[in-house]
Design brief:
Elements (H helix, E strand, L loop, with lengths): L2 H10 L13 H17 L6 H8 L3 H8 L2 H26 L3 H19 L5 H8 L8 H19 L7 H21 L5 H18 L10
Length: 218
């Protein structure tokens, strides 16, 4: 994984630390693959361990032996999905050549990811609708992923406006997350591209603004 991804992960890690993960055996991976598809398509609460075991072709006891609980399966589902997203995103950002295009590349990656993997909307937002208790082990994964995205936007926009990076990072995050939610709801087409356009306007305004000490036009 790219160095910049690792640095963002460090910046976004809260005091609670990362959730416990398990070592995947081939059988556990088959079960997780089945659970992941079911959780995303039907919802976490609607899917029981019996159904996961049946879909994976394993015994219910095997699931508990491998994961310990349904909650741990949810942790693995969300954490693995986030890891895949970070790997998917990296080449988009790395191929961009300016601070502005690197930020917009995040929206491009999200659009393509959504088309390929998230027809029902953001898995983290969907999961949070079902898991709002901070004591649930998957809650850290959900909020941690969004903290990671905020750290990403804040870090990228720092190359454009370092003294306003915190505010601009939040604005970009809001546009990005709003685009994901609107995409999932399907209220209007091309929601993520619309959010990208608004992000471009925001960035162009930041670039036109007279730079403060230490800021650079790029």
């Amino acid at each position: 994984m790219s160095d910049w991804v690792s640095e963002i992960a460090k910046a976004a890690t809260g005091s609670g630390g990362a959730p416990r993960r398990i070592v995947m055996t081939p059988g556990a991976q088959r079960a997780l693959d089945a659970a992941s598809a079911l959780f995303y398509e039907r919802g976490i609460h609607a899917v029981g361990v019996d159904l996961i075991a049946a879909e994976a072709g394993v015994a219910k006891k095997t699931l508990y032996d491998r994961f310990g609980s349904k909650e741990q399966i949810v942790v693995e589902y969300l954490a693995a999905r986030d890891e895949r997203w970070q790997v998917f995103l990296a080449p988009y950002v790395e191929a961009a050549t300016t601070p502005r295009t690197r930020i917009l590349a995040v929206f491009d990656a999200s659009r393509d990811w959504a088309d390929e993997n998230s027809t029902k909307g953001c898995s983290m937002v969907n999961a949070h609708a079902e898991i709002s208790d901070p004591a649930h082990p998957a809650y850290q994964v959900i909020t941690g992923q969004k903290a990671w995205m905020l750290a990403l936007f804040t870090g990228l926009v720092r190359d454009i406006a370092p003294r306003r990076a915190a505010k601009l990072g939040r604005s970009l995050m809001l546009l990005h997350e709003g685009g994901l939610v609107a995409h999932g709801l399907g209220i209007f087409p091309d929601a993520i591209d619309h959010a990208r356009g608004e992000a471009a306007v925001l960035l162009d305004s930041a670039l036109r603004a007279a730079p403060t000490a230490g800021e650079k036009r790029r």
